[in-house]
Amino acid sequence: MNQHEKIEPLLAIYNDLEINELQFVNQHLQTCSACTETLNTYQKMDRVLNDHAAAMETIASNLLLLRAPNRSPKIRSFKQRILLGLKNISARFK
User: Fold this and answer.
1) pLDDT grade, residue 69 (50/70/90)?
2) Average pLDDT of 29-52?
3) CA 40, CA 88: separation in Å to the nearest integer?
4) What's the rounded Cα separation, in Å, for the pair 35 and 65?
5) Domain that includes residue 23, residue range
6) Comparing 50 with 37, which gets the higher pLDDT?
7) What is the count of structural domains for the chain?
8) Residues in CB range of 67: below 8 A, 6 or more apart
9) Are 75 and 81 in contact (CB under 8 A)?
10) What is the Cα–Cα distance from 50 to 45, expressed in whole angstroms?
């Protein structure tokens, strides 16, 4: 098994590596641009996924609020509450 075969699966879990694995990977990254690029790609993916997770959490919490008892006599149906919630959510991402 060559160096890349040992390193490549560790790049995907770089943030969760044990100290000895991290040292092993970091030593390899100093001389390998291909693995450095792969790690950068994984880290970008992690950032995007974290951003989407935060957005989904916001959406979920807003949907839960919509299921709360109706506080406004003007909004009578669940459908109307959903539409209002979606407008509020979309306004946050503009």
Assistant:
1) low
2) 88
3) 34
4) 45
5) 3-92
6) 37
7) 1
8) 78, 81
9) yes
10) 9
Spell 53-92 as b/e; 16+ CB within 10 A means b: eeeeeeeeebeeebeeeeeeeeeeeeeebeeebeeeeeee
The percentage of residues in the chain with a pLDDT greater than 90, rounded to a whole number, is: 35
Q: What is the pLDDT of residues 45-62, one digit of tens each?
A: 888 777 777 777 777 777
| The pair of three-digit structure tokens given for residue 28, joined into one six-digit string | 């390899």
pTM of the model: 0.57
What is the rounded distance in angstroms from the CA atom of residue 94 to the CA atom of residue 83?
17
Report which residue type is found at 10: L
Residue 11, token pair as written in the block: 């790049």
Structure tokens at 70: 């109706």
